[in-house]
Amino acid sequence: MKGLALLILSLGFTCSTVLGQAGYHLKVSTEVYAPLTSGTVVSGGTGWVEPNYSIPLGFDFPIGDTVVNTFNLASNVVGTGTVNSAVTTGFVLTGAQLCDRGLSKLKSESPLRYEVSGVEGHRVFKFEYANAGFAEEYFQYHTNADHLNLQVWLYEESGAVEYHFGASRVAHQADYFPANSGISIGFVRNYGVNTREAESMYLLTGSAMQPLVGSVGQTQSANGLSGLPPAGTVYRFVPVAKQPAALHTISQEKRMTVFPVNCRDFIQVVNPLHEETRFELLSAGGGCVQRGDLQHGGNRISTGGLTEGMYILVVNAPSGTELHRIIKS
Fold first, then answer.
1. Within 13 Å of residue 67, how many CA atoms lie on the same side as its CB?
2. What is the pTM of this model?
3. For domain 247-328, is the CATH number 2.30.130.10?
4. Which residues of the chain register pLDDT less than 70?
């Protein structure tokens, strides 16, 4: 993927400042890497180069402003575009052209596999590049010593996306990544699958464990991370809450009061109506995670057991319906 033609326009901003423009905020953590040894293998037996897949998720999942129900991998981007799409919006996995380490023997040594865990409303789709190699090393040096273990997880309940890095080795970084820079991790909007150009892009840059985020345009070279993330590194991209309570049909003077918009353990709902009123709390993927009745006056809805991310509170009454966006942090 060295053909990426992208320009870092601004550096030195916090992750939340710049990445928030893409609709996400970032958390960096560490967690023991667990290979998906029991996962469903989708790669063939003779090897692969920069694979493209559309795999059913089993649930709806928001990416940017679009909801998908398949895991779409095209030109190293997990996004809205299927294998036949010319343009996609989503998450750049590495910026490198990956391949099977068994290409020279026509026998796969780098399985691509996935699994789905959890119950309805709380499912997690996981996809893994296991022991993946780098096409530039194979074609330029005729070796396959460098390798990468990487998983991407999609959370039904919160709409979050996670990168999980396992044991990896990169000796020829300048050959693998765009414009001789570091690994590309971040969000891309309207990315051309064939042209390798994007309307905008938000890349992690600098230290792998304390990254900044650069806002990216179309014209020149991009700077990724200064090195490959160590084994156990997790990057979690969580949807950012937008302005709350934008949609409603209940009259203005009878609207609910919902606070705090950015919550941790609970939200308060003040109901001014003297009629039967019910609520549903929906995840970003559309699944109902909680429902119940709202009494006249103050009501407390527990959110302590929810995962971080954006949720929609739907209030239904005979006099109408209104929606409130909240974020669990």
1. 10
2. 0.71
3. no
4. 1-21, 178-181, 214-222, 241-254, 285-286
